[in-house]
Amino acid sequence: MAGHSKWANIQHKKARQDAKRGKIFTRLIKEITVAARMGGGDPASNPRLRLAMDKAWDANMPKDNVQRAIDKGTGNVEGADYVELRYEGYGIGGAALMVDCLTDNKTRTVADVRHAFNKNGGNLGTDGCVAFQFQHQGYLVFAGADEDALMEAALEAGAEDVIVDDDGIIEVITAPSDWAQVKAALEAAGFKSEDGDVTMRAQNDTVLTGEDAEKMQKLIDALEDLDDVQNVYTSAVLQFDE
């Protein structure tokens, strides 16, 4: 992914996230609940819960909300029983899409996801049709940082790789389970990331421009707006007209 398109996509994503703050809270509560149910309520021994809580703090979620979600997951408080589902398919220009859901009604969820694909020019595929194109990894993106100092700090903190593009954007790659500790170590060393997450990263990009980019954004928005959808991963790199 070219530096400009990467940076433009980061800014675009952050703006959209800010606009969907309430929905982000709902998704984080679901994720914390499921993480606590599967691995217990102690973030020190439950990496998935620790990651979800870190995201909750970054989103300024009240501590009471976080604790209530943990209590629901551990059974201390009654709550919905969510199951995890993943759907795979294709978007504009054949771009790969993976859609992760948490739901208490599978029939509703698959119908909603299929409708979003069909209505917006995509195609819902079969299990495994695009999963091989993605890798589970953590990433942190930095702009304007001292390259040598950041690289040394990142590798010392346990990062797997550090990538620098032509525009000086620095990307730190981590194992999913190491993301939180690498992020904390870099922040302690004075490096504040512009963007970062544990994600399913496409191994090859599908660059979409102009009208195709707008259509793909509409499809992604339709999927992300569904109540049961937690995350949408895609190989598409959207380049909009300046």
State the main characteristics.
242 residues; alpha+beta; 4-stranded antiparallel sheet; globular
Give a brief outline of the structure.
The chain is α+β, with helices and mostly antiparallel strands. It has helices at 3-19, 21-39, 47-58, 63-74, 106-119, 147-157, 179-188, 210-224; strands spanning 83-90, 96-103, 123-124, 134-142, 161-164, 170-174, 195-202, 206-209, 229-234, 236-239.
Task: Specify the number of helices.
Answer: 8
What is the H/E string?
A: HHHHEEHEEHEEHEEHEE
Q: What is the terminal-to-terminal distance?
A: 18 Å
Q: What's the rounded overall pLDDT mean?
A: 89
| Percentage of residues in helical conformation | 40-55%
Taking the sheet with the most strands, its summary is: 4 strands, antiparallel
Q: How many strand segments?
A: 10
Low-confidence segments: none
Strand content: 15-25%
- Strand-pairing-aware structural class: alpha+beta
- Spatial order of the strands in the main sheet? 3-1-2-9
| Broad shape | globular
Rg to the nearest angstrom? 18 Å
What does it look like?
- With 242 residues, the chain is α+β, with helices and mostly antiparallel strands.
- The chain has helices at 3-19, 21-39, 47-58, 63-74, 106-119, 147-157, 179-188, 210-224, and strands spanning 83-90, 96-103, 123-124, 134-142, 161-164, 170-174, 195-202, 206-209, 229-234, 236-239.
- The strands form three sheets. It has a four-stranded antiparallel beta sheet. A four-stranded antiparallel beta sheet has the order 5-6-4-7, covered by helices on one side. The chain has a two-stranded parallel sheet with strand order 8-10.
- A hairpin with a 5-residue loop joins strand 5 and strand 6.
- The model has no long low-confidence stretch (mean pLDDT 89).
